[in-house]
Amino acid sequence: MKNIKKICFLVLLLSSLISCTYEPELKSSVTIYPELTLNGDSVVVLNQGTSYNELGAVSLSGTEELPVSTDGTVDSNTIGVYKVTYESFNKDGFSASKTRTVIVLDPTPSAINLEGTFFRNGVNANVVTRISDRVYRCDNATGYTTGAPENLTMVFYNLDDSRIYAPFQENASSTGISAESNIGEIVSENNFKWIIYASAFFGTAVRNFTR
After folding, report:
1. Per the CB 3.0–4.6 Å rule, which of 26, 50, 100, 175 could disulfide with 46?
2. 18-75 pLDDT, tens per residue?
3. How many whole angstroms separate alpha carbon 147 and alpha carbon 125?
4. Alpha-carbon distance 68 to 89, whole Å?
5. pTM for the whole structure
6. SS3 sequence of the chain
7. What does residue 149 show for φ and ψ, rounded to 5 degrees?
8. Residue 122: is it exposed, middle or buried by C-beta count within 10 angstroms (0-12/13-18/19+)?
9. How far is CA 115 from CA 26, 88, 91, 129, 135, in A?
C-alpha cells in the first residue's frame, strides 16, 4: 500500500514538473486600428462635362501609412450620382473605409423651381428653400409630424429636372439622426417623391410630396 502511495506521489510530482516545464508562453499584442481620411470633400458637386479630379485618401496606423484601395468610377459627362469607396487594412487585418459621393448636375438653367411648402398626405409640411439654381434645403425630408425633433433638415439637388438626390448628411435632425435619399423623382414642379434612408424609426416608404 505504501508503495502504491509513493508511486502515485511520484506520478503527480512528475506531471506537475512536466506541465510547468512545457507550459506554452503567452504572448500579448496591441493593434493600432487604421484611421482613413479623405483628401478633399466627402460630397463633390460638378456640372456635366466638368473634369473630376480624384484626390484619393490617406490611411494611418499610428505613424505607419497604409495602402488604400479605391473602388468606383465617375463619369462626369453623364448626369447622375457616383460613389467612390476607399478601404485600407492594418497588419492584423482590421479595416477602415470611407465613401465619397460625386453628384453630376445638368449645367443648363433649371426649368422648374421647387421652392415652397410641400405636404405629405396633405397634412405634414415640408418647407423647401432654394439655395441656388439646382440646390435646395428642406426642413422635413420624411414628411413626419410637423415640428417634431426627429424632422430631417437636408440639402438636396435637382439633377436634371426629373431626378432629385440628397447625399448622406450627419446629424440631419436635432436628435442626431443621419440620412440620405435614393435618387428620387420630380413628377412636376408641384410634386416630388423619394425614399429616405435614415433611422429604422422612419422605415423606407416612398415619401410623396405635393403642393
Report:
1. 50
2. 444 445 565 667 899 999 999 999 999 999 999 999 999 999 999 999 999 999 999 9
3. 9
4. 8
5. 0.84
6. CHHHHHHHHHHHHHHHHHHHHCCCCCCCCCCCCCEEEECCCCEEEEECCCCCCCCCEEEEECCEEECCEEECCCCCCCCEEEEEEEEEECCCCCEEEEEEEEEEECCCCCCCCCCEEEEECCCEEEEEEEEECCEEEECCCCCCCCCCCCCCCEEEEECCCCEEECCCECCCCCCCCCEEECCEEEEECCEEEEEEECCCCCCCCEEEEEC
7. -65, -20
8. exposed
9. 66, 42, 51, 5, 10
Q: Which three cell numbers stand for residue 107?
A: 449645367
Query: How far apart, in Å, are the Cα atoms of 127 and each of 40, 99, 177, 192, 204?
Result: 31, 29, 19, 13, 21
Pairing label, strands 57-61, 64-66: antiparallel
User: Which among 200, 156, 140 is positioned nearest to 45, based on CA atoms?
Assistant: 156
Three cell numbers, residue 144:
413626419
The three cell numbers locating residue 69:
484601395
d(CA 59, CA 79): 31
